[in-house]
Amino acid sequence: MLVEDDPAKRRYEILVDDALAGFAQYLPRDEVLIFTHTEVDPGFQNKGVGSALMRGTLDQVRAQGQRVVSRCPFMTAFINRHPEYADLITSLD
């Protein structure tokens, strides 16, 4: 599984055997990415693809020195279950 940022589409995508298996959509705001929606193709659900997408996305966000605002229930639930990513959460105050 490969997670890549596609800035033109404003989303992180996960590829499984070169097939698009899911994505996490975002809106960029300076050093903050506002995640609005995550989608996993039905054929890849319940196979760990969503979790791999979240890990890959959040690891890349961290490596780039960015932070996240999660307006996506899937991402919020993932971060709640994986507090090692809680430090990436910020607000738009």
TrEMBL record:
Gene3D superfamilies, per the entry: 3.40.630.30
Occurrences of domain N-acetyltransferase (ranges): 1-93, 4-90
Superkingdom assignment: Bacteria
One Pfam family this sequence matches: Acetyltransf_CG
Stated name of the protein: N-acetyltransferase
